[in-house]
Amino acid sequence: MRNIKLSLFVQKITNILNKIIIENNLKGEIIIESSKDENKGDFSTNFALINSKLNEKKPRELAGVLIASLSRESLFDKVEIAGPGFINMTINKESLGEVILKVLKEKDQYGKSRVKNLKYNLELVSANPTGYLHIGHARNGAIGDSVARILKFAGYEIETEYYTNDAGNQINISASTLFYHYKNLLNEPVNQPTEMYGGDMYIEVAKLFLEKFGDKFKNANINEDNKIDDPEIHNIFRSESISFFMKIIKQQLKDFGVEVDLYTSEAKMYETHEIEKTLDLYEKLGKTYTNDNALWLKTTEFGDDKDRVLKKSNGDYTYITPDLASHNSRFKRSKADLYVNFWGGDHHGYINRMNAGLALLGYPLGILKIDMIQMVRLIKDGTELKMSKRKGTAIWLIDLLEMVGKDSIRYMLVSKNPSSHMDFDLDVVLKKNSTNPVYYAQYATARAYKIIQKANDLNWDLNNSNFNLLSTQKEKEIILLLDAFNKTVEYSANNRLPSVICDYIQNLAKRFHSYYSDFKVIDEENVDLSTQRCQLVKAIYQVLSNCFDLIGIDVINSM
User: Fold this and answer.
1) Which residues are registered as beta bridge partners of 369?
2) What angle do CA 83, 477, 466 make, to 5 degrees?
3) Each residue of 504-518: pLDDT tens digit?
4) Which tens digit of pLDDT belongs to each residue from 442-487?
5) pTM of the predicted structure, to 2 decimals
6) What Cα–Cα distance (Å) separates residue 303 from each residue in 154, 307, 308?
7) Alpha carbon distance 544, 553 (integer Å)
8) How far, in Å, are 5, 17, 26, 317, 487 from residue 30 at the CA level?
């Protein structure tokens, strides 16, 4: 636990218990939990229950020893035994102000953990460069980028990258699709590709080709292999389409607040012969064999249900081969301790074979974590908007950004567990009321900011160090929630779940809105109480701001 900056009160209680344990020659692990029921105190420990045998005492007897010392500590209003040996502790209200002071002192560093000396490499999005990003890519990007932000805040070293699938048949389809529209724009006859992407986007891109090349390629056509019949022209359309779409994708990611440190390329893997080098390494390690003129990898040695083909009998590589080579190259370059890929839920069956293939190269089994991100359904007027890139009916991120904005998209996409399918209801995110969780959260910062500004306009001194007048249960609950922020960050980081931060935001926003409704924060007839309450509001504003940054949304000061 030495690398974790615990909550103020958990740290204080832990230190007190450690002292008592040493003084009484006791042994055992200390676990402190927040109480969910205010009638059972603010914090509890099961120390007496889980360590009774170790200390040769009955649980309640051991709890009595601890309580005798805990009751003398000024931190607590009340300490009592519950059930078979739980100890419930209620914090003295006079101590609560320490949390407010801590938040206001540390500001945007509040809740941040100490450096852990462990490096993560995260592969984000990795959409094919054959079109714009859609809502599915956006969910991967929002979750992956938020995980990166949370892990960094939790003390980890973070490196993010985007693996560009720019060497497969999907690039041939894209090239042929654009060429088909290019020829149509020239009013030249052309064979329609047997497989092509649909949508007006490709017509718009074809216009750029026409501007750049004129009618230079008017005599070419589409052949039976679904390619442009002149290989040189086909390669031009391939490379130009990749370049164009990658430029668009990078800009869309930037507009969406997704930060990528490094872009890598599958095509580059072929150019530098990394795939052949990886196959040679497998063969030198004795991890391949030939059967039916195909090259197989012994993935069953590490738990895969069957061995996998690396090279087909016709000499073509299977899908997994460049993937294994790219990960081998990535591991050698990054030298991270843990690697995480954010993949769509339809790749679930791919996990075991990938990890087995990497273990055969000598990497620790499980060094690559795959976080599966399920599909998103777009809902409008209670009806699902169907999406198909091939049919040209996909809903592009660029359109959603114009329609509802970055913050609404990011918040909604990370607010649910990524392993669950989610419905993105456009009608909800366009509402300006409490039914829209994004509006509800940002309205909390706007409300808090207005209160702070009002206090400043009144020239109130918001530098209290004594918060003895904050005596209501709602104030105490808010302060304890502020104190739990680092614990929330740690849990979110350890489980790579940005949704945990969204849950915390909603909880804090709800408590603040309720507090504002029930109590007068700005009361010019009671300045002492008001200044203490305004500092509490400043602390709420700061912690919400820190939360917003972790999921990549903006703080709103006016609504």
Assistant:
1) 340
2) 115
3) 999 999 999 999 999
4) 999 999 999 999 999 999 999 989 999 999 999 999 999 999 999 9
5) 0.93
6) 33, 10, 12
7) 11
8) 16, 8, 11, 54, 16
